[in-house]
Amino acid sequence: MSDDVDVPESHPRYESLLTRHRIEAGVDMGITSRQGLIAQGRGEAYDYLLGEETIDSADRAERAAAAYLLSAEHAVISVNGNAAALVPGELVELSEVTGADLEVNLFNRTEERIERIAEYLKQHGAEAVRGLTADGRIPGLDHERAKVDADGIGDADVVLVPLEDGDRAEALGEMGKTELVVDLNPLSRSAQVATVPIVDNIIRAIPAITEHARELHEDRDAQRTAIDSFDASTALTDAEAAIRGGA
Amino acid sequence: MSDDVDVPESHPRYESLLTRHRIEAGVDMGITSRQGLIAQGRGEAYDYLLGEETIDSADRAERAAAAYLLSAEHAVISVNGNAAALVPGELVELSEVTGADLEVNLFNRTEERIERIAEYLKQHGAEAVRGLTADGRIPGLDHERAKVDADGIGDADVVLVPLEDGDRAEALGEMGKTELVVDLNPLSRSAQVATVPIVDNIIRAIPAITEHARELHEDRDAQRTAIDSFDASTALTDAEAAIRGGA
To answer: Which residues, if any, are the signal sequence (chains A, B) (predicted)?
Structure first.
């Protein structure tokens, strides 16, 4: 990571300060919303209680997520304002390694913000970014919140949704999609309904999924093992124990 | 509470939604900062784990805080952007009941934001608001962060600092002041250095302190009992257990 941020990498709070710097830059660029700032604060608190590290069960979840992305018919990575602000290059890299599409999908949707986020991802190397067509709908959601690309999330069998709203996570699950959710609160509805809940900071989670994907690439047996050996409810219990009990 | 917010009081998340509404209105008015939004999110997460209720030890802390404010030579309530946005009328009422001064004091200080906050408190009934003179300094802090009114916080023996930064809380403590801190994270430095750490949502804490102050008013013995029977380290341990163990 080589951001223009005045904090030495040796600083004990480097990752946390860098994260905050990126989020604030996201606001300046018009890609992070107010709700995004509040959500960032919630994440900080859970991560603090988690010990600001990737716990073992989260690493297993990241490996399972990589396997699902690789073995999907059509995988899509959903990108919102905070995800774009925090890990733009990392999302593009994950997309390249797994072959998953990138689709911008916002809880508080405006065309302007979607275009800015798509542009920001392209600045970080993305060749194609979905989300602007918005000709598909997720059943059971309000009009604006239901919009997806018909040939993107609408058509996907596996969706990675970092930092997703609970209603949307639930509705996507009801469409029968395999949902990979990154969420630092193991008690959140998004984490609870996920096929693979990844209770980890997105800053650590996305590069970890990419690393697992590189390892699992073209090894169908290893992909199957990563998926079969992962248990969502155990992962949630482990994460809650880490947060409640101290990591 | 009678805000212009489209959420019925019966809604299970009423308090949480009202809080968020007030914070967003604070941004619109230019009194809540970006850092304030992130801090709000952190508070939401801790309050969620706490069960979004005032635990017994927090109630005892609120009673002790009321007693300290009433028995002070010169008590000052420090008001930052989030406190002003969340509980403007409640802070004015507490000030009236206890005789404590109100002083605007910001971590990211700008004259404009101080004036807006002072004006907002006056709209909620405050007669005098300190913080604009800024002719005193807290030793050991950067210039802008050190500013206080010499005849306000500078002169106070008891200071209520809701949602205070750790460095400032520590520096105020080193000045020998009795510090009453409202902070939802019992592990934060502000809570750790406080004479009375109040681990509760400010939305619940300020009215609770006012209620205790009404009861303890002119009863010196009861004030002494509330102070003597309060133990800060027990309160912090209780709060952490509630957050870690589930309320």
So the answer is: none
